[in-house]
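URGENT: need a sanity check before tomorrow's submission.

F., can you look over the Paraquat-inducible membrane protein A record below? I want to be sure the sequence and structure line up before it goes out.
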Amino acid sequence: MIEAGHYDIETGAGLIACPRCDALHVEAELHAGEVARCVRCHSVLARPREGAFTQIVALSFTSMVLMVAAVFFPFLEISRMGLGNATSLFGVAMAFAHGWLMPLAVAVLAFIVGLPAIRSALLIYVLLPMRGGGSPASRAGEAFRLSELLRPWSMAEIFVIGTSVAMIKVAGLAHISLGPAFWAFCALILVSAASNVFTCSTTIWDTLEDRGAFTDGREVVPDLAAAAAARAAADPARTVAAPLGAGD
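Structure tokens as predicted:
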């Protein structure tokens, strides 16, 4: 751990890099409503919001409910000459669950359903205990790191775009009726976009560190002694000593 206002150039403790241009900045504690921007490209580095954790948790719960509706409710119905067939996303995946097409079914369920649901569950696990100044859950840092790794692989919006293109091509051959699952998927995309707006990974990491969660051992905290005591209380098995001479 390292005290706020200090930094160690060798380990990177106390420094934050711009995700767009890689410019290094000295990390500072921000209050709700303040914005930290890169001095070079003016990208937002951190933007803490009042009540953001509660909003992210609520949006994550909403995403999981919409995902269930999108998977099991009818997605669309195709009819021609009095004959029609309706299917759900789960039914589409199961249609490919035979023979050499099995990997396609696994990919559909994993990238479109599984990963977004897992990421929502991880965000709930990390942020729900910390609302209102609560202590983080056990291994919350590892859970949030995994949720950040899964973020680029959540492809629900790509699936909807691909489905829309396919429906435009099929519309001239048959009548297509959109089911509730399609609109649930569209709502899921909007909810996910709102969650990404409220989610500031830098702020979440800082909150985890300040409340004693183990991240990578280079935490910047306002008070070293208080942070060490909070970490010992939160997870005694993972307690580490503060590096000597850090920031000197």
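My own read: The longest helix spans residues 102-127. The chain has two domains: 1-48, 52-211. If you see anything odd, call me.
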